[in-house]
Amino acid sequence: MKGAEFTMDNEIVNKNKSDQDNNLPWFEGGLRFECQRCGRCCRGEPGVVWVNKKEVEEISAFLGISETVFARHYLRSVNGRLSLLEYGHGDCIMYDNGCKIYAVRPCQCRTFPFWTWNVESESEWEKVKRTCPGIGKGKLHTLKDIQGNLKVYGERFDS
């Protein structure tokens, strides 16, 4: 058997198991998160919410408007990429006592808080927890779920 060896008692031991255990992230047991729809991640601090063509199509259809109208009223160009507009105080244009497009929100919003730097360490996670009331509540996201979100986010934004 590849990756296995026999002990003196003829038990099969996976030689790679301890290596695999050592490579597991600090959140191997999963993390609890359920969006409280409080808008803290949507309001206040200026930033960007990137959208791609597919998301523009989905959001436009959801709002019942053409992509052209959507682009004219809700998008801006930042360094050649598209971002949702913000109000002068930093609030996302799609936030109005809750996300108006929650069902079709962009990847950046869907994957929050499972962004690379937020789960880099337990202390980083705790920092985000201080501003996000959904962290530590609701559904337990498994290691596989979190790694899936990290992959989606990474493919889209970390390259």
Tell me about this structure.
It is built from 6 helices and 7 strands, in the order ββαββααββααβα. A hairpin with a 2-residue loop joins strand 5 (75-78) and strand 6. The protein has helices spanning 17-22, 53-63, 67-74, 107-110, 122-129, 143-158, and strands spanning 4-6, 12-14, 31-33, 50-51, 75-78, 81-84, 135-141. Helix 2 packs across helix 3 (67-74). With 159 residues, the chain is of the alpha+beta class. The chain has one domain (31-158). Strands 4-6-5 form a 3-stranded antiparallel β-sheet. Strands 1-2 form a two-stranded antiparallel sheet.
Uncertain runs are 1-19
Please tell me the total number of domains. Answer: 1
Helical run tally:
6
Strand count, sense and barrel status of the largest sheet are: 3 strands, antiparallel
The tally of beta strands, per DSSP, is 7
Widest sheet: strand order? 4-6-5
Tell me the series of helices and strands, N- to C-terminal: EEHEEHHEEHHEH
Structural class: alpha+beta
N-to-C terminal Cα separation, in Å?
38 Å
Cα gyration radius (Å): 21 Å
- Tell me the fraction of residues in β-strands, as a range: 15-25%
Residues in helices, as a percent range: 25-40%
Return the average pLDDT rounded to an integer.
Answer: 86
C-alpha geometry = globular
